[in-house]
Amino acid sequence: MSRPNAAPRPAPATTPAPAGSLTLWGDVAGPVTLTVADLRRDWEQHRAEVVFDCATAGPQHHTFSGPLLREVATRARPRFDPARRKERSRFLLAVSGGDGHHTLVSWAEIDADFGDAPVLLATVMDDQALDRPGPQLVVPSDRCGARYVSAVTGIWIGSPPGRTPPGARP
Ligand SMILES: Nc1nc2c(c(=O)[nH]1)N[C@H]1C(S)=C(S)[C@@H](COP(=O)(O)O)O[C@H]1N2
Ligand SMILES: [Mo]
Asked: What is the pLDDT, as a whole number, of residue 164?
């Protein structure tokens, strides 16, 4: 039966994430949305003085500070057994900026038992707080700037398929 005067449907029960926040999601037990203030308050802040090369603008010098990506990512409880190195080595982190730029970091790259790269989610760049634009990925070991994703809005954490391709020998 049609009800032309029915009240409009309620909005879906998802509240928009606050400006400048990022959401950890994917193959995780505890998806979580964090503001830059959360990133500053809940984890030790590490400093990184970096130079990276931009294809269009040349060398860029910046000083960042923020928590280690691996410590923040652990908060979402990725679905691996943390005691098993092989399981951890199968995971990836896809880091997305609000403008659609996105890049990959492997769990092994940032894990202390593997690459141990001090990758940060910066809360401050050159003494400017990043609360409003959102955090920036900092990859001090990279020579070029493409993975310095700014205004990070989401980090998907998960493992790609481990199957052998169709037709591969058993
Ligand atoms: N969100 C977002 N972050 C980004 C990019 C982008 O297009 N979008 N470009 C990257 C590239 S190619 C470079 S070189 C650096 C440039 O950083 P800067 O402008 O802060 O020096 O940002 C990186 N981060
Ligand atoms: Mo760049």
From this structure: 84
Q: 147 CB contacts (<8 Å, ≥6 apart)?
A: 95, 103, 105, 137, 139
What domains are there in the chain, each with its CATH number?
22-158 (3.90.420.10)
Query: Structure tokens of 2?
Result: 């049609």
The Å distance, Cα 87 to ligand 1 centre, comes to 31
Closest among 133, 51, 56 to 99, alpha carbons compared: 133
Which residues, at least 6 apart from 141, have a Cβ–Cβ distance to it below 8 Å? 117
Identify the CA nearest to 160 among candidates 85, 89, 82, 92. Answer: 92
Ligand 2 center–CA 56 separation, angstroms: 6
Give the pair of three-digit tokens for residue 80. Answer: 């691996």
What is this structure's pTM?
Answer: 0.91
